[in-house]
Fold:
Amino acid sequence: MSLMRNALALALAAALCCPLAGCAKGPEAVQTTIFAMDTVMNLTIYGTQDAMEAATETIYTLDGQLSVTSEDSFVYALNHAGEEGASVPDGETLELLIDALRLCDQTGGALDITAYPAVKAWGFTTGEYRIPDQAELDDLAAHIDYTAVEVCPNSGDFRAGLLRLPEGMELDLGAVAKGYTGDRLSALLREAGVTSALLDLGQSSIQAVGGKPDGSPWRIGIQDPAGDGCLGVLELADQAMGTSGGYQRYFEQDGVRYWHIIDPDTAAPARSGLASVTVVGPSGLVCDGLSTALFVMGLEDSVDFWRGHPELDFEAIFISDDGSIAITAGLEDSFSLAEGCTQQEVTVLS
Ligand code: AMP
Ligand code: MG
Structure:
């Protein structure tokens, strides 16, 4: 079901982002759809086929390294290495881990890249959904603790470093991997001379390289978390966007919905009153990680966080369970309600 919704969201984004027909001369659009990182990705690059191939190759490589389920990945090796730990494959992966751990810290643990045992216990990795009892949840929550990840013990040389996890703990970069991938792709494409690309990395992780070829911004549909339609439109140029929502991956039992975003304090799906959070900014990793973290925090704490962390350079759209919409001040000019939703009130946070 989530894939179908995702596909709809992608179709919507694609429809909204179609370049103008007959626009000025320049590189032609090269488009592709691939399945990676457990989702459907749609890439549009105004550039060469070679640039597209380099981009898809990078996605597959990163998927291979960062996947929590693939037995060949670094993350899998780390999760099964026990006391010995696992070597970080390269400096970039180590930088990603350090950046992700910093974000865990900055968000006070609302983002916690060791939440994986809880994600598994609820069945989100296999689709064999279940509701763990309270004792199991307490035990799971006790083992979610990003501060226990040992990075490069006894070594100042990161490239030669080791990572080690305590017994019972497993790492999962699912909350940041697509955003990080967007950053890597954006750097790669810019180096290849691409000035216009829209990288829809699925599950609402989007990276815009420049704007459309005619110079106008890309227009991205913001999904209504309560339906299949589009609630708003966000203009994006040279920025990343990440959305986390309870509608993206979930199961229902006895009329209650349980989703894939876990509150590290309870090891259960986060119920903060938010239905979705979209984060926009220059860093894909930050946008992806923060969309997950702010979903866990809820509106009030998220707004305090936004005010307290200007260095993270992000703006956000919050859609609450009751359908109300709030945006941070920096999005006032780039967010608009979709047709049919224009009666809705939008609170601008400052
Ligand atoms: P996203 O779709 O970016 O919000 O990331 C959600 C994914 O990250 C889930 O499918 C889990 O694999 C993992 N995850 C769930 N809750 C958390 C959390 N609080 N912190 C870090 N990762 C999480
Ligand atoms: Mg995320």
Observations:
- The pocket of adenosine monophosphate (ligand 1) is lined by residues 111-113, 115, 119, 124, 172, 174-175, 203, 244, 260-262, 264, 288, 291-292, 296 (CB under 6 Å).
- The first strand starts at residue 29 and ends at 36.
- Confidence is low (pLDDT under 50) at residues 1-23.
- The radius of gyration is 20 Å.
